[in-house]
Amino acid sequence: MNESSVTPASAADSAAADRKPGWGETLKAYLEPASLRMFALGFSAGLPLLLVLGTLSFRLREAGLDRTTIGYLSWVGLAYGFKWVWSPLVDRLPIPLLTRAMGRRRSWLLVSQGLIMVALAGMAVADPRSGLDMVVWCALAVAFASATQDIALDAYRIESADAAHQGTLAATYQTGYRLAMIWAGAGVLWLAARAEVAPVAQAADVAVSQAGAAVAAAAAAVKPAPGALYQNAAWTTAYLVMAASMLVGVVTVLFSREPAQVELPPSRNAAEWFKGAFVEPFADFLKRYGTHALLILALIGVYRISDVVMGIMANPFYVDMGYTKDEVAAVTKIYGVIMTLVGAFIGGALSLRLGVMRVLMLGAVLSAASNLLFAWLAHHGHDVTALIAVVSADNLSAGVASAAFIAYLSSLTNVSYSATQYALFSSMMLLAPKWLAGYSGAFVDAYDYPTFFTATSLLGLPVLVLIWLATRISSAPVSPAKP
C-alpha cells in the first residue's frame, strides 16, 4: 500500500487500534488458523534437534562408543549456529519448478523436510558398531536440513502476521517445538525399548525365576561389555518412526498458503545478486538502527546467557546430587518441558497485553533469579519435591523469556530480508553464551555448584541494563520495517 493511498483514521478507528485486547480475545488468538499452523510447523522444527544430539549420544553410548568420540560428534550441532551463512540463499534463491508452484517459503520448507526424512531413515538403518561414516554423514545432513528448515520457517512466521501477533505465534511455535522434543527424547527411548527382542528387565525376571535370587544377584554384579545389550534393530524402528513423524510438517506445508511477500527486483548479474542477497540485509539493519544497532546486537548476544551457561552443568549437577535417571527424566524431560510450554503461553499472552519490551524485562529477571534456586537446591540436598519446585520455576521463566525474545527478534527484521536477518539474530544469541559455557565445568571444579549457579545469575545483570537502554531509545517496541 502506498502512503498516498492511506486516509486519515477516524477517532473511532484510532481508539480501536489503541484498545488493548481482552483476555477472551487474547486466548482466542491461540485458536486462529495461523497459530494452529505454527503449532504443527513448530513440531516439525523441534523433532530433529535431539535426534542428532542428546538422543544420538544415548544410542552411541549404548552401542559401546567412548565418550570422547561422542563428544566430538556433538559438533554436528554447529550447523544451527552458522545457519546465517546460507540464509541469504534461502531468502532469495528460487528452487526450480517448486518455487513457482508453491512459493518461496513453502518450497524451501518442503525440500528441507524431505531431506530430514531421508537422512533420519539413513541414521535408522546405520549400525554404529560397524562404522560411524554413515551415521556422521546422515547426522550432518539432518542438522543442515533442520537449520535450513528453521531459516525458512522463521521467515514464514514473521511474514504470516503483524507485530502484535508475533508473541502468539511464538508461543504456539514453542508449544509444538517442545512437544516434538519430548517425542524425540523420551518418546524415541520408549519406542526403542519396546522394539527390543528381549528387554533387559524381562531377562532379569527370567534369571530370578530360574536360577534363584542368589545366582541372579551374582550375575547382576558382572557388568556387561560395552555394546553387549545394544540392539540396532530396535533403534532402526524408533528412528524410522521419527522420520515418519516429519509428515506432520510436510502435510501442514502442503495445505498452507504462502504468506504475502515483497517482490524482489531481478538481478542483472551475479555481483548484483550477491549484493542483494548477502550485503543489503546486513546493511539494511545497520542503516535502520544506526548507532543503536550495536546496543541491539549486544542485547541479542547476551539475553539468554544465564540459561545457556547454567544449562551445560544441569545434568552433571543432577548426577552429583544423587538423582536417578528416572527422577531426572520425569521431572526435567517431561514435566519441565510442560512447564516451559505454560511459560511460553503466558509470555505470548502478556506480550499482546503489555508489550514485548516489558515482558522481555520480566523474562530476564525471572531467568536470572531462577538460577539462585539451583544454588539453594545444591545446599538443600537430594529432594525430589524440591527438584520439582526448582525445575518448575526455571522452565516457567525460560518459557516466558523465550516467547518474548522470539517476538522481539521478529520485530527487528525487515520483511524484505526476514530469513537472512532472523537467522543472523538467532545465531548470534548462542555464540557468546555457548563459548562461555565451555568453561562451566572448570568453574565448578575450581569452586562449587552454589558459587557457579550464583555466578550465572549475576551474568543476567548486564542484560537488565541493556533492556532498559533499548527501551529508552524508542518510545514503543520496534516495529518491522515496511518495504
Task: Describe what you observe in this structure.
The protein is an all-alpha fold and about 475 residues long. The chain has 26 helices and no strands. Helix 3 runs antiparallel to helix 10 (about 135-160) and helix 20 packs parallel to helix 22. The longest helix has 30 residues, at about 165-195. It is globular and about 60 Å long. Mean pLDDT is about 75; it is low at about 1-15, about 200-210, about 215-225 and about 475-483.
Compute the average pLDDT: 77
Class of secondary structure makeup: mainly alpha
Number of strands: 0
Biggest sheet overview: none
Rg computed from alpha carbons, rounded to a whole number of angstroms: 24 Å
Fold topology:
Elements (H helix, E strand, L loop, with lengths): L10 H8 L4 H6 L4 H19 L2 H9 L4 H7 L4 H4 L5 H6 L5 H5 L1 H22 L7 H28 L5 H30 L4 H12 L1 H9 L10 H14 L1 H8 L15 H20 L2 H11 L2 H8 L1 H7 L4 H30 L1 H25 L3 H29 L5 H20 L2 H7 L2 H10 L2 H12 L11
Helix pairs in contact: 3-10, 3-11, 3-15, 9-10, 9-14, 9-15, 10-23, 11-14, 11-20, 11-22, 12-13, 17-23, 17-26, 18-23, 18-25, 20-21, 20-22, 21-22, 21-25, 21-26
Short description:
Helices cover 76% and strands 0% of the residues.
Q: What attributes characterize this protein structure?
A:
mainly alpha, 26 helices, globular, 483 residues, single chain, disordered C terminus
